């Protein structure tokens, strides 16, 4: 009996330790200090903002992928861009070890292949957004364009709406986190999903 008690106590404390250390690791990246926020003026206004999600300390976003619902056809409900994922690395151009972060994500579509900066990190972005369609089918954000330390990366999103202006450019090393504005499913056949995004820059 005594041996059994000892054993179960060991198992329980061992479990507690692993849970705590995993928790601390994710907290640290969420609370990572950032230098500035990048915003664009043309984001959609439906939905609510998710949590800020940051790359692990010491890493910066060098690539991204999108969750996109392909056009579903006339008189159907298109949602277009549903999510953005940042892929974070310590060293530019070393892409075999990376961490992925995302804020809130809509429920439609599939994730596109990762696009990586030719060199450096992501430093600015531009959003393609469809204006409110009145009684028509609203899609809000459709696509995103990123500027890298060198070169630009074009998302594999959809083509409704217009490109806005560039965000400011990171003064620090690069983009290190994001927060998305997502409209939850409306249940009445006109969903927009992702509306807007804020990117964070770190030194």
Average pLDDT across residues?
78
The helix count comes to 1
- Please outline the major beta sheet: 5 strands, antiparallel
First CA to last CA: what distance? Answer: 57 Å
Percent of sequence in beta strands? 35-45%
Task: Find the structural class using helix and strand composition.
Answer: mainly beta
Basic shape: globular
Keywords: Signal
InterPro entries: VOMI, VOMI_sf
Signal peptide: 1-21
GO cellular component, one term: extracellular space
Can you characterise this structure?
This is Vitelline membrane outer layer protein 1-like. InterPro entries: VOMI, VOMI_sf. By secondary structure, the chain is mainly beta. It has 1 helix and 14 strands. It has one helix spanning about 1-30, and strands at about 35-40, 50, 55, 60-70, 80-90, 100, 110, 115, 120-130, 140-150, 150-155, 160-165, 175-180, 195-200. Strands 1, 2, 3, 13 and 14 form a 5-stranded antiparallel beta sheet that branches. Strand 10 and strand 11 (about 150-155) form a beta hairpin. The longest helix is centred in the first third of the chain and has 29 residues, at about 1-30. The protein starts with a helix and ends with a strand.
Secondary-structure map:
Blueprint: H1 2-30, E1 36-38, E2 48-49, E3 53-54, E4 60-68, E5 81-89, E6 99-102, E7 110-111, E8 115-116, E9 119-129, E10 141-150, E11 152-154, E12 162-163, E13 174-182, E14 194-202
Structure characteristics:
globular; mainly beta; 1 helix; 203 residues; five-stranded antiparallel beta sheet; signal; VOMI; VOMI_sf; Vitelline membrane outer layer protein 1-like
